[in-house]
Prior knowledge:
Chain A: Keywords: Lipid-binding, Mitochondrion, Transit peptide, Ubiquinone, Ubiquinone biosynthesis. The complex is a heterodimer. By secondary structure, chain A is mostly helical. Chain A contains eleven helices and no strands.
Amino acid sequence: MAAPSTILRRLRPISARGNLLARTYHSYDHPPPPGPFSTTESTILSASLPHIPSHGFTLTSLSLGAKDAGYIDASTNLFPQGPFALVHYHLLTQRLGLAQKKEVLEADEGIGAKVKKLTWERLMGNKEIVHRWQEALALMAQPSNVPTSLKELAAQSDEIWFLSGDISVDTSWYTKRASLSTIYAATELFMTTDKSPDYIDTREFLDRRFKDVQFVGGVVGSVSQWVGFTASAGLNVLRSKGVRV
Amino acid sequence: MSTSRTLNNAKNNGVHNDPYPNSSHIPRSASEALSRPAPRSKPLTQAQRDFLASALRVNQAGELAATLIYTAQTPVVVASHPHLRPLMKHMYDQEAGHFSTFNSLIAKHRVRPTAMYPVWTIAASALGWGTAIMGREAAMACTEAVETEIGTHYNDQVKWLLGMAEQMEASGEQLGDDIKGLISTIRRIRDEELEHLDHAVENDAKKAVPHELLTSFIRAGCRGAIWVSERV
């Protein structure tokens, strides 16, 4: 009896396990559930953000922030994951900030154009701390932090597609989010080494990545359309010959 | 017919107060979504959000399969029984309406669609085509089996949602339009599905050979698909 019940437990709804595919019901009548940080934690973390350009994603920034917010240095014990809390908070606030980019969201443009602009806005959210971002990437790549990092990346892609007005609910839901996540992660890494004025090189890199994805998507779309058309035409020819299919 | 009777007993005539008749009320843009009136009540619990997410996901998958089954059945069935054309079209049109209802609900509430989408597409088309080839009775037995499972499934969802509504009202919370709308939408769709069940039985579904084997096979498949779609 023990074995089947363990298996069943493992097959519980993915969303219930906080998996990175968790995209659970978004209510318009009820406030959103509480986020990962408490009020105190958020106060300390937001006070720490201004210290990141000079002190990096480190415990130093965190304790300076705690001091600024009026807490004792030891308050950094609130964050068992250490400096990664700063990275997580940065990712979270940048993601939620996307909904405030009114000039992009209210523009009279297509979904694709909005996705590109929002992605660019998000990259520019790293501008102040881009010289420290490799530290953050190292923290994100630590095994214990990988689930949170991936979840944030997935949530960000979901947010960008949703805010851009995309309402696709078939397999393209997955491919859209996956390709945007790849593009974003690659461009973000490219940006850490970009020394060009106003990040022109990053901009071009991003445009090229979007073009590649559009090309591949176009080919896949045409091929599947051709296969579908040929199959249904073949079936109709058989039917016209009186074959009962 | 015992299943059908118990289902009909639980019928409720909340059909006409659906605030979103076609559930086409998706916020057009993110800014519209954000400018919606501020929420008044407590956040939904994790269990409630999980239930709503998996309910919408499985319902969309089910309606996708239903439209595909009828799409695959119609040409074959109609070729040998032209008098069934209006019935097949009527049932297909209703299923297509349900499908678009759940599509817009899934997009609106940001629920992940099922990852098995391509699998259900192929399986449902194969099921529809396969039963249609076996003849009109088998095609109708397929409808009978599927709609019996789906009716029970929707009924369970309505029960769960009503329980949730009762709980929320007991604790003094206001029930949002979304949940009210969802309950009446699912009720309306359930009644339409059960109507299809009646049509199938009227059209000799019970005369399919081997009826028991065929329907229990399809019903088991349906339950399996529901179980999977609620999860992935």
